[in-house]
Amino acid sequence: MEDERIKLIASRIKQLRIDAGYSSHENFAWEHDLSRVQYWRVESGSNITLKTLLRILDIHKTSLEEFFRDL
């Protein structure tokens, strides 16, 4: 059984990317020196580490508080 909270986090990360103007997860990962496969896993909710989450939030200039608000 998959945890709905992980799906919500992954969806929020994907939305941050889209809101930043990136239609492709590959382009976003490439431009920000992230592994494309790892980033795809993050957006699909299969592999989210705290270190990666913090890096993504730093890229988007978003705090943990702001990110988790309304989740």
Describe the structure.
Helix content is 66%, strand content 0%. The chain has 71 residues and is an all-alpha fold. It has one domain (4-63): lambda repressor-like DNA-binding domains (434 Repressor (Amino-terminal Domain)), CATH 1.10.260. Helix 2 packs across helix 3 (36-44). The two termini are 20 Å apart.
Structure summary:
The chain is an all-alpha fold and 71 residues long. The chain has helices spanning 4-19, 25-31, 36-44, 50-59, 64-68.
Q: Give the strand tally.
A: 0
**So what's the overall shape?**
globular
Kindly name the structural category.
Answer: mainly alpha
CATH class: Mainly Alpha
What is the percent of helical residues?
Answer: 55-70%
By CATH, the superfamily comes out as lambda repressor-like DNA-binding domains
Secondary-structure blueprint:
Elements: H1 4-19, H2 25-31, H3 36-44, H4 50-59, H5 64-68
Helix pairs in contact: 2-3
Which labels suit this protein?
71 residues, 434 Repressor (Amino-terminal Domain)
